Amino acid sequence: MPKFWNNTNNIAVMVNELVPEFWSSQNVLSKDISRNRKSQYGVKALQRGCRNRKLIIDFDSLPLHVQEALGDPRKIDHNLQNWYRTDSVAVDFYTMFRRPDGNSLLPLEQQRYITNASVLIAVLQLREKHITERIKLGMSLKGLTSFLCNESNTFNEYLERRKMPTHNLPTHPTRFKEALNSFETEFNYNGKLFPYNYLAIVKDVDGKRKVNSLKVDESVLNILNGLFASQPHKPTATEIHGSYEAFLSGYAEVYNEVTGEIYNPKEFPKISESTVKVYLSKWENKAATYKKRSGDRQQYMSQFKPHHQLERPKFAGSIFSIDDRQPPFKDLTGKRVWFYNGLDVASGCITVFVYGKTKEEIILKFYRQMIRNYTEWGFNLPYELEAESSLNMPFTKTFLQEGYLFPEVRIEANNARGKRIERDNGILRYGIEKKRIGWIARPTAKSESNQKGSEEVPAIPYDQIIDNAIEDIFELNNSAHMDNEDITRWEYFTQNQNPELKPTNWQKILPFLGYKQETSCNVGYINLQGKKRAIAMNGEISLGENLINVMKAIEGKEITVYWLDDNQGSVLKALAFYKDRFICEVQEMPKYNRATIEQTENCRKARQIQSSYVTSVEGFIRQQEKSLQKINIVHKQKPKPQNGFFIPGMNRKTFVPSDPETVETVDIPDGDSFPVLPSSSQSWKNSFLK
Question: How far apart are CA 228 and CA 286, in angstroms?
């Protein structure tokens, strides 16, 4: 709309008001301006366009038919003419507005509400001006509402002449006043305060008008979806329509198993078979019913569950993706071998693999092999694990707790898209293994080149399947990296280790993944695998006070050692525990050559360590010996016991032992004969009663 320019009487017109309705493009308009620059007639520019300025046209230089179409603001054709502007706040509000069902307004609705709001704002400004003028002139405000309503009604004619969108505000003064009063109040929407109530002029804010006109309401949908999902077999939409018709006709009874409610067929409308198909095929209904009916979770997830879009990590060791797989080959018995592979996601390198005839037997072997590989390579274990739940769930309370083997653990149930290794397994299957004899195609392969051929697939010996699978892993690891073709996957893995990775926490994992052996500590050595091994800590043989403290705890006692072997069968790491408490590491004592002439530098270092080991124990014993004090003991005579026991009414002779010095000793001669002692003349009665 033309406007006054720089507080002068000149009227400015913007280029977009002239192009393309009156001129086909801005270039054509600019050429006309340049052509008429020195003449007294033709289109003129109030401001020439350049890099930082817009081209502004002089309204008075335009042809008369263009001036009439645009309207001269100096000539008042309508009272609202100078007040009306498209409200930018209304544009933002109606563009972003959503009904409860999530649907935005249609473009025609948006334009209508933007125009209605802009007209109401112009009417409010006009009302304020008229109220001020009437008060100045001492006039009554009676009839103001009718005046404003009439201005609003006639303003549509002005908008039509200017080829601008028209409004559909109420035409009756009473209804118009209600709309105006509702609109001019402040309005808080989604935590934002608006100067006008833009929502007040929106019809059917909740979107119920469309819903109420439908035959298939929520109660009908509940029956259709419930029948579709709850049947023992998988009924088609045609079967569901037949069941619904039988329900309406009274030949079938429909009830809710949860609430026990029996539905009344008189309360439900008759609908066509096509209507049933349309509603059952809608996404919002299929998402739930197909989930309950589906026996293939992977197929369901591919259709309905959105997947995350992730960037590949930059550092090796940041995330480790593992999964079991069966190379697509059958052995001579008709069975397939099981592999369990671990993929470093950043490098795309399979760093760990184990195999066996059943997948249950290889899961612990896999984690032990991972520790062996990373330890012998000199790399820290990965930070995060992503795995499937079928084999790993039993270990979530032991070494797969977060912070034990991995700081972060993510285990998902039956979600192939949740593990990166699934895609690299596809590279193995279709990029490398497919070239080998005996390759088995998937029955559901979509690509014709991956489907079964006409020739019979031969069986392969078990050992050959294993050898080929390992060769294929080596080929994958030595292939070009996905993001950098100048280096291989293995080279990327070795050159881009994450610097934030932490050392292995052996104390947390060995009790679960290590082998267990009951043994003892004697004279400072712990017996493990038939060898006497030394006490160590942090990878070094313990000496001095550290050694003595450990010996105080376990010397001469039964202990438990958890250990893990390396790829050569030697002890990779061993830890000693006493009553479930970690005590020390167990490490083989370095040996040296008995012959002095054959000793090397390593032998001399080993001899020094052993000497220090022995000296630590001997020094402690000498120190303990020196600390001993000369302490003796003198025993005192114990008090005689008191004979206090008696029986009432009974007198008892007290036994008095004879004095040893007065006892007569009788020598008995050698031999079998004994001398006969002279008998006493006193009778036994006298002796007893005396």
Answer: 10
Strands (E), 144-217: 187-189, 192-194
Alpha-carbon distance of 242 to 542, in angstroms, equals 84
Residue 563 sits at φ, ψ, to 5 deg, of -145, 160
| 16 or 453: which leads in pLDDT | 16
Q: Peptide bond before 20: cis, by omega within 30 degrees of 0?
A: yes
| 667 pLDDT higher than 70 | no
CATH 3.40.50.300 fits 319-495, yes or no: no
> Is there a contact between 372 and 356 (Cβ–Cβ < 8 Å)?
no
Q: Sign of the CA dihedral 147, 149, 152, 156?
A: negative
> d(Cα 501, Cα 197) in Å, to the nearest integer?
57
Strand 384-388 versus strand 408-412 pairing type = parallel
Strands of 557-673, DSSP E = 558-565, 571-578, 581-587
**Cα angle value 98/101/105 (rounded, 5°):** 35
For residues 617 and 548, is the Cβ–Cβ distance under 8 A? yes
**Encoding tokens for residue 212?**
């109420």
Q: Is the pLDDT assigned to residue 295 strictly greater than 70?
A: no
- 641 upstream amide cis, omega within 30 of 0: no
Which burial class, exposed, middle or buried, applies to 586 when counting CB atoms under 10 A from its CB (0-12, 13-18, 19+)? buried
| Residue 662 token pair | 């007065």
DSSP class of 375: H
Cα 39 to Cα 29: distance, rounded to the nearest angstrom: 16
Condensed to tens digits (0 to 9), the pLDDT of residues 436-464 reads 888 888 776 666 656 676 578 899 999 99
Whether residue 201 contacts residue 117, with contact meaning beta carbons closer than 8 Å, is answered with: yes
Q: Which residues of 86-125 are buried (b: 16+ CB within 10 A; e: fewer)?
A: ebeebbebbeebeeeeeeebeeeebebbbbbbbbbbbbbe
Three-state DSSP state, 631: coil
Q: CA–CA distance from 501 to each of 313, 319, 347, 383, 504 (Å)?
A: 14, 11, 16, 6, 9
Provide the token pair at 486.
Answer: 């100048």
Domain locations in the chain? 3-70, 88-201, 214-304, 319-495, 514-594
Are 56 and 17 a contacting pair, CB within 8 Å? no
Identify the bridge partners of residue 536 per DSSP, sorted by sequence position.
541, 585
Distance CA 572, CA 567 (A): 9
pLDDT bucket at 417, cuts 50 / 70 / 90: low
Question: Residue 394 CB: number of other CB atoms within 10 A?
Answer: 11
The proportion of the chain whose per-residue pLDDT surpasses 70, expressed as a percent, equals 83
Cα dihedral: 160, 163, 168, 172 (round 10)? -20
Tokens of 90: 């209304």
Instruction: Give the three-class secondary structure for 444.
Output: coil
Q: Which of 110, 72, 107, 105 is nearest to 90 (CA)?
A: 110
Query: Rounded CA gap, 509 and 465, in Å?
Result: 33
Question: Beta strands 192-194 and 187-189: pairing type?
Answer: antiparallel
pLDDT higher than threshold 60 for residue 524: yes
Q: How far apart are the first and last CA of the chain?
A: 157
Of the options 3.90.1530, 1.10.10, 3.30.920, 2.115.10, the CATH number for the domain spanning 3-70: 1.10.10
Instruction: Let me know if 15 is exposed, middle or buried by CB neighbors in 10 A (0-12, 13-18, 19+).
Output: middle
Beta strands in 102-191 (DSSP E): 187-189
